[in-house]
Amino acid sequence: MLLVLFVSIRTYAQSIERWLSIPLKKQMFQAMPALSWEALSSSNSEDIEINPKDLDQTIDGFGYTLTGGSAHLIQSLATPIKKELLLELFGKSNNRLGLSIIRISIGASDLDEKVFSYNDLGPGETDLTLSRFSLEEDKKALIPLLKEILKINPEIKILATPWSPPVWMKDNHSSQGGQLLPKYYRVYARYFLKYIQEMKKQGITIYAVTPQNEPLHPGNNPSLYMPAEEQLIFIRDHLGPTFKNKGIKTKIICFDHNCDHPDYPIHILNDPKASQYIDGSAFHLYNGDISALAQVRTKHPNKNLYFTEQWTGAKGEFAGDFMWHIKNVVIGAMNQGSKTALEWNLANNRQLGPHTPGGCTECLGALTISDQIERNVAYYILAQASRFIPANSQRIKLKQVPGLAYVAVKRPDNKISLLVQNENKESKQLSIKYLHKAVKLDLPASSVSTFIFKL
User: Fold this and answer.
1) Where in the chain is the domain with CATH 2.60.40.1180?
2) What is the spatial distance between Cα 380 and Cα 24, in angstroms, rounded to a whole number?
3) CA distance 405 to 210
4) Which of 112, 138, 157, 378 has the CB geometry, 3.0–4.6 Å to 101, for a possible disulfide?
């Protein structure tokens, strides 16, 4: 059973709003009777004490990958339905999700209906000047949809990453696997530059790029194998200097793969010439443990961390997936220092497409779009956080209590949001303490609770 509580306090005497979610029953975000603060009369070692002055990283926010397939499906909706859906996802008022970051692919991802780059040529051809560079494929759905989203939230951050370079730059001349030929490092850096410049002409600012999606997974289609030393050289000698020389402010984020290889970003960041161009490192969690983020932060505390992808599968179980993702992707990633928590694909059809030949056949989008719109578990995972933790919140450092997982932030509106997960099979009793006040709680078994109060 999953429970969600939200607490809102405008003065110390005012009531505390509560909200309840029970994923086993798929009863999400239920309004509950209000609670009230009380004078602190006793102390328990398991109480959660809030000190809003003990702040850590700023949160960029929560979002999904807007794949080309997602964009085509959403664009196919009738205009009034599409407009309301985009407001629901990206609007900031009322019960909107308030998503504040989008990840997109540079060229095709495996959840596009076909493989493409922005510089596809015939066999044996090259284009060292990138004179045939074109965004035409993205102009069909992705770019128009991004423009509509930007009208709703002009401040939304857009993170872009390639699944593969153009095949003529690769040693195997295939969209799947292979490595980037060193003789094309410089032209590939200019490919990134041209992409950012051409998107800017469309009114779309790219906030950050990663050099490669899942660089240690060459089995996808499209994909590229890019070991750490190759990414280091590419950033240090080509991508970083190209951005600097052209005055590009887009951030470079390295790695963008699983938590079982924290050595990868550490190796790159250990090089001072490469590190000067890098904002931080990005992670997925298909292997490893979320604590890998803290390992990288310990070695390089001046570099940011980003959690950029985690899928939910069509064969998964709603409540179990919800609990795992809340613990690891939302609470876990933020507590390890991440500025973001992103789930994978925003939308699919009933056949779990579109996808490329060899692309993911079991990835369940946050939305299933057919003759109606179904909201799946990934929708609720991020709604749990994005509705109540807006961009530019700051994480509050908290002493952790055994048997619980929780994270707190100080929001820009001077309120505090606290998200608490009780994975135990029994209910848990404790208090939230702030200054000389406390609120007593009974957290049901297998539950998640969120509290919001004003300073």
Assistant:
1) 15-52+403-454
2) 13
3) 30
4) 157
199 in Cβ contact with 206 (< 8 Å): yes
Burial class of residue 360 (count of CB atoms within 10 Å of its CB; 0-12, 13-18, 19+): buried
CB within 8 Å of 193: residues ≥ 6 apart: 242, 243, 246, 248
Q: What is the pLDDT of residues 10-62, one digit of tens each?
A: 334 456 777 777 787 787 877 777 778 888 777 777 899 999 999 999 999 99
374 forms bridges with which residues in the sheet?
A: 368
Sheet with 48-49: strands ordered across: 38-39, 437-443, 428-434, 48-49
Name every residue whose Cβ is closer than 8 Å to that of residue 291 and which is 6 or more positions away in sequence.
259, 336
Our measurement of the distance from residue 64's CA atom to the centroid of its chain's CA atoms, rounded to an integer in Å, reads: 6
Instruction: Name the CATH topology of 60-391.
Output: TIM Barrel (3.20.20)
Distance CA 374, CA 358 (A): 25
Pairwise CA distance, residues 374 & 83, whole Å: 16
The CATH T-level fold of domain 15-52+403-454 is: Immunoglobulin-like (2.60.40)
Of residues 129, 69, 124, 128, the one with CA closest to residue 361: 69
Beta-carbon contacts of 197 under 8 Å, excluding residues fewer than 6 positions away, are none
Q: How many helices (H) and strands (E) does the chain have?
A: 13, 22
- Are the C-beta atoms of 278 and 268 separated by less than 8 Å? yes
Q: Could you please report the per-residue DSSP string of 60-92?
A: -EEEEE--HHHHHHHHTS-HHHHHHHHHHHH--
Domain with CATH 3.20.20.80 in the chain: 60-391
pLDDT tens figures, 213-268 = 999 999 999 999 999 999 999 999 999 999 999 999 999 999 999 999 999 999 99
Cis status, amide bond into 354, omega within 30 of 0: yes
Residue 428 backbone zone (phi > 0: left; psi -120 to 50: alpha; other: beta): beta
Q: Against a cut of 0.90, is the pTM above it? A: yes
- Rounded distance, CA 274 to CA 236, Å? 4
Judge whether 444 and 4 are in contact, CB under 8 Å. Answer: no
